[in-house]
Write a structure and sequence with these properties.
With about 90 residues, the chain is of the alpha+beta class. It contains two helices and five strands, in the order αββαβββ. It has a five-stranded antiparallel sheet. It is globular and about 40 Å long.
């Protein structure tokens, strides 16, 4: 089974969220479907089911490898580089 090679390098504690919602969606006037938080810098972006796919866009621009769901009651993480749940 493939494993994430980036989780050990994440900051502890996790970064604080830079916003409460996706700022790119706010600027574009769209509605985020679900939110994700970058575990390197705290950027909050929308999921791939949202029109802008801003969490993935943040990863592509920044190369920050791991995000976590920013939805209440959820705690899963995703590594964009290794394509696995962390």
């Amino acid at each position: 089974m493939k494993q994430c090679t980036h989780a050990d390098g994440l900051p502890h504690p996790e970064p604080e969220p830079l916003s409460e919602t996706c700022p790119e969606c706010l600027a574009e006037g769209t509605h985020p479907v679900q939110l994700r938080i970058c575990l390197t810098c705290g950027h909050v972006g929308c999921c791939d089911s949202s029109p802008g796919r801003h969490a993935t866009g943040h990863h592509k621009e920044s190369e920050h490898p791991v995000m976590r769901t920013f939805e209440p009651g959820e705690r899963w993480r995703w590594c964009f580089v290794d394509h696995v749940l962390v």
